[in-house]
Amino acid sequence: MKRILLFLATNLAVLVVLNITMTLLGIGPYLTANGIDPGALLVFAAIIGFAGSFISLLLSKWMAKTSTRARVIDPQAPRSRREAWLVETVHQLADRAGIGRPEVAIYEGAPNAFATGAFRNDSLVAVSTGLLDSMTEEEVAAVLGHEVAHIANGDMVTLTLIQGVVNTFVIFLSRLVGYFIDRVVLRNERDVGMGYYLSVIVCEIFFGLIASIIVAWFSRQREFRADAGSATLLGSREPMIRALARLGGLEAGELPKAFAASGITGAAIGALFASHPPIEKRIEALRQLRSR
Length: 292
Prior knowledge:
4-stranded mixed beta sheet, 4 strands, 67% helix, elongated
């Protein structure tokens, strides 16, 4: 219920803020008089912006399993002692976090792990064989605690809401600018012309880059919270610190782009676009948390 209310409140807030802003600036009446209904455009932008994000969220488990070729472990019939330990550890952490027990999966690849799913009680935690082979059980448990903390914090839903908000702004502002350039700059008096469509494409790319920076910033903040959540679930900061230190010396396995923000490590294309903070900063944050 809280997540549903958050979705509705966020969606309503975007609509209200943009409507008030356009009214105060006198943009709404001007656009309406010149062929654009800003209210209808805003509703269209919100529907498209949030629909894309939520459809992706609802399909996230299936997409994650398919793209990584992850194999879900049958909790009643694990194939090895390691698989049995993995399932038991995830279930214990989920019980401590007060969430439903996630599906547990293994996939072939370099060291990495991720959690995904639309609902706290119906999620997926996947770990790569590279991570299992390169870490001690205590360090793997810390990584699993990090992923379970993501689920308990509702990070997948929160990030979806944020993405929906920025999508709305990108779609709305791109078409607003496109219409302005087509009618005012190019002085096209007929139906929207090529100038409108080209402007929309350019603006969507430009505003999309800005939106990506915003979403990446929120993603980095949630990584700090998940690290702290792992420390809480395990009762100590040291396992997560050691796991991060070990990851810092390993080549992290790349996840499919759609799930990069869900992994324990992320590919840092640039500081502003990185979905994960530098490992050194994450370790320092854990050490500061310990000293409080």
